[in-house]
Design a protein that fits this description.
- With 174 residues, the protein is mainly α.
- It contains 6 helices and no strands.
- It has helices spanning 2-22, 36-47, 55-67, 74-93, 99-122, 129-159.
- Helix 2 packs antiparallel against helix 3 (55-67), helix 2 packs parallel to helix 4 and helix 2 packs across helix 6.
């Protein structure tokens, strides 16, 4: 079962990278384009929270950095942090409904896009914080959420076998 999941993860990462290179610039609205790599990494962290590690988010973030114009390593760090937060929060707050994974995805995607916008401003992007929020972070996060919604249903089917039920458990702090 683990080999099947690894194969699905690698193929999904390759597809997300190809979509980021080929499709994302073509569907950009003004300066906002979807980040397929961010969406894929966070969805994987939510779908298999106990098995998700830092390697996939770091690799996806590094690919994003190497093909983009931002600082190398910035998105890699932010993806590792966002995926860690997403997997831990989902493990704590999962109530077997559709709301929790989607709410966690939206929050992590928005925080990652906001942090990346602040990182770009710290590295010399000539924009004020409100402009960066309105023209970059919010539109990109909305794009990421649309991509993540589709990816979530696909990855639940492929990785979790159609369900994310992990048995009965009592809520506790971990």
């Amino acid at each position: 079962m683990a080999e099947k999941n690894n194969f699905v993860l690698v193929v999904g990462a390759i597809v997300a990278f190809v979509l980021q290179i080929a499709l994302a610039p073509a569907i950009a609205l003004f300066s906002a384009q979807p980040n397929f790599l961010l969406a894929y990494a966070i969805v994987v962290a939510i779908v298999i929270p106990n098995e998700a590690g830092p390697v996939l988010p770091f690799a996806m973030g590094l690919l994003y950095d190497l093909t983009g114009t931002g600082p190398v390593g910035g998105m890699a760090l932010l993806l590792v942090i966002a995926c860690f937060i997403a997997s831990r929060v989902f493990s704590l707050m999962d109530n077997d409904t559709l709301f929790m994974p989607l709410a966690i995805f939206v929050a992590c995607a928005l925080l990652a896009e906001l942090a990346y916008g602040m990182l770009l401003m710290a590295c010399g992007l000539a924009a004020n914080p409100v402009e960066a929020l309105v023209t970059r972070a919010l539109p990109c996060a909305l794009y990421d959420c649309a991509v993540g919604l589709v990816l979530y249903f696909v990855m639940v089917r492929l990785l979790a076998g159609g369900t994310q039920d992990r048995g009965l458990r009592t809520p506790k702090l971990r």
